[in-house]
Amino acid sequence: MLECGSGEQGTFHLSVTDDGPGIPDELQSKVFEPFDRLGAEASNVPGTGIGLTVTRQLIEGMVGNVGFHSKLDEGTTFWIEVPTARADN
Hints:
89 residues, globular, 31% strand, four-stranded antiparallel sheet
């Protein structure tokens, strides 16, 4: 599920939720670490393990925040919040 809208104090909020297996508590601290695929490297799931690292760097470069919450056997929600710019006429 994809949700977006205005966040608090002039921010844009975007979240993506899945109903997958979730991320075990003991692996959650590694989610944004480069090249750490949380054990998926032993599977057929393609990837390098840098996508979330790059995402965090880009969002923080825009003075925003990125995070997630996950529940085992229920899924994960990743979210970003970035400040909005006011358009001057």
